[in-house]
Design goal:
Elements: H1 16-19, H2 22-38, E1 42-51, E2 54-64, E3 73-79, H3 98-190, E4 194-199, E5 204-207, H4 210-215, H5 238-248, E6 252-257, E7 263-273, E8 277-287, H6 289-311, E9 315-319, E10 325-328, H7 330-336, H8 357-370, E11 372-380, E12 386-396, E13 405-412, H9 414-436, E14 443-445, E15 451-454, H10 456-462
């Protein structure tokens, strides 16, 4: 196909009509138009074309390729086979007819003129298109310039607003700083914790009123080294601890007493400022005298409780929220066959008889809401023996740092339950004897001679029904003769 394509100078073009041999352009344009309109194959009669200085007979065909891609056309250019006429014979006259030659020349002139006109039209179209693109580009540039100007104006306005906002924020920060200073001063004046701030040279920079009495401070002591101050504490390592914290950045905590036997919890911490820079040391002294007293009282109380619980003749268990034994006195261990301390950590439901576990579990789940309950249940000793106990369970809510727990007091009622079972069995045997002795009228009366029950023989022999004589005196249900 390259033999029939001629590319002109200038900007390259992929337009087939521009690249096609000039002698074939008009016929190719007509064939393309017809093929697109008819959507069918169009064949162009053989034409004579000068290729490489030689005359060549060429045929062209245009085939629509809608089945491959809509709107595409296949153009085929091939040399004509031998024996195929170059052009159809003219309708009138012969080739040597002057009129035919004149018409051929006129036709060639018109074709040439048409080709020139088409080329000029296409060139004008391309120029207009280029001009339109240039105008559009200029329009876009003007629009971009306008947008840039608008953006610049908005940026200036935004910067102005930001400056206004920054000014307001700075004003607010200054006010916040003033409030913070006031709050800090009020906090230091109101706090009961003695606090002393030291710089890196261990000189006093600030202190709270609570520290005045402990360190004998006066307003003129600001800037004085800590070593120049006397204090009421029995703490000779104070300065050494402060230097150790300043060098190692590890807080130190000690309990010391003063001259009046008041206990203080002393904390020595590094004083950190912005960017994690160490500017000195902070000393805080918390009066823990009351806490120490309460701790001692609690310790004594717990000792008393342990002594009472271990000597009690009942089992005492303390359970966590999930039902695990956290404390058991000695009697509870002996009752269940465990050594002292072996019950701690054992789930309490594993100690309960399988037939009573469901009810016991339900009661324990409801205990925080009910507060307490009493329950008679069976427990399993370590050797598998069953014993009956009466449990009084109370809920201990969490308070004072202690977790919530359940306190269980167990009383062994095995002998009582055995006696009750024996009594019920005896009563059952008596009832069977009374019901089977139908030929006798048998009554049961209490100490006040009131009838409490009778057998079926009494009902049959005497004609009594229901409970009409229950509660009546035995000596009033008969006649005087009887």
């Amino acid at each position: 196909a390259g033999r029939f394509l001629q590319f002109a100078g200038g900007e390259p073009s992929r337009n087939l009509l521009r690249a096609m041999h000039p002698s074939l352009r008009v016929e190719l344009r007509a064939a393309l138009y017809q093929a697109e309109q008819r959507q069918s194959r169009v064949d162009v009669a053989a034409l004579s074309v000068a290729v490489g200085g030689k005359a060549l007979s060429v045929r062209m065909s245009v085939v629509p390729m809608s089945e491959l891609s809509p709107g595409f056309l296949l153009v085929m250019v091939e040399p004509a086979r031998d024996g195929v006429p170059v052009a159809p014979p003219p309708a009138m006259g012969s080739d040597n007819d002057p009129l035919t030659q004149l018409l051929d020349r006129e036709l060639e002139r018109l074709k040439s003129h048409l080709r020139d006109t088409v080329e000029q039209y296409e060139a004008s179209t391309e120029e207009l298109k280029a001009s339109n693109e240039e105008l559009q580009a200029m329009n876009e540039e003007l629009r971009s310039a306008t947008e840039e100007l608008e953006t610049s104006r908005e940026e200036l306005q935004s910067i102005n607003e930001e400056l206004t906002t920054v000014n307001q924020e700075l004003k607010a920060k200054v006010e916040e700083l003033g409030h913070a200073n006031s709050d800090l001063q009020n906090l230091m004046d109101a706090t009961a914790i003695a606090t002393v701030f030291l710089d890196r040279a261990l000189r006093v920079t600030r202190y709270t009123p609570s520290a005045v009495e402990l360190f004998n401070l006066i307003p003129g002591d600001l800037g004085r080294p800590l070593s120049d101050l006397s204090n009421q504490l029995n703490y000779p390592e104070l300065e050494a601890d402060a230097r150790r914290v300043l060098l190692g950045l590890v807080p130190i905590e000690r309990e010391v007493v003063d001259m009046r036997d008041h206990a203080f919890l002393v904390r020595v911490l590094p004083y950190r400022v912005g960017e994690d820079r160490i500017a000195g040391v902070v000393l805080t002294l918390v009066d823990v005298t009351e806490r120490k007293r309460h701790q001692e009282a609690l310790r004594v109380s717990e000792q008393r409780f342990d002594a009472v619980a271990d000597r009690a003749a009942v089992g005492v268990l303390e359970l966590s929220e999930d039902g695990v034994v956290t404390y058991a006195n000695q009697f509870a261990g002996r009752l269940l066959g465990y050594a002292d301390g072996e019950l701690v950590g054992v789930p309490v439901l594993t100690l309960v008889h399988p037939d009573d576990r469901a009810e016991c579990a339900t009661r324990l789940v409801r205990l925080p809401a009910t507060g307490s309950f009493d329950l008679e249940k069976r427990l399993l000793r370590r050797n598998g023996e069953v014993l009956w106990v009466h449990d009084s369970v109370s809920w201990l809510a969490a308070q004072g740092g202690r977790p919530a727990a359940a306190l269980v007091v167990c009383i062994d009622i095995t002998k009582r339950r055995q006696a009750e079972d024996a009594l019920r069995a005896s009563e059952e045997r008596l009832r069977l004897v009374m019901d089977n002795a139908t030929e006798y009228a048998i009554f049961s009366i209490d100490r006040a001679l009131r009838v409490t029950s009778w057998n079926s023989g009494a009902q049959r022999l005497l004609g009594w029904v229901g409970s009409e004589i229950v509660g009546q005196r035995y000596d009033t249900i008969f006649t005087a003769e009887e």
